[in-house]
Amino acid sequence: MAYSTTATTKGGRDGRALLEDGKLALAMALPKAMGGNGEGHNPEQLFALGWSSCFGQAILALAKKHDVDGSAARVTVDVAIDKDATSFALAVEIKVQIPGADKAKVQALAEDAHAICPYSKATRGNVPVTLTVI
Fold it and tell me: Where in the chain does DSSP place strands (E)?
């Protein structure tokens, strides 16, 4: 195992989340759009932060192969949550922007990054994902 981390939350979406090393602790809150007070963070925000960072690293790892400057990449991950007939479900849009780069090269790079990013791999077949090159 290359790395492992542990987080504990008490109080669910209106509680407090803490990493085991104590270096990050967050107040959690149900978003206003879902009937909460919105006075904290929510799991969808944290998921978006993690996925955008991880996907950005995949872009950096593969950029040279696509003859693109990966250091200029901006990765935005939009995470939506909605309720269906029986439960809640996520949907994601990953937006990749590399100023000055050929759009076709960036598209190919984004598709390759989506194939190796651990977040993309973990959700494949479970979460609908749209890749958008800006």
Answer: 7-10, 16-19, 25-27, 74-83, 88-97, 129-133
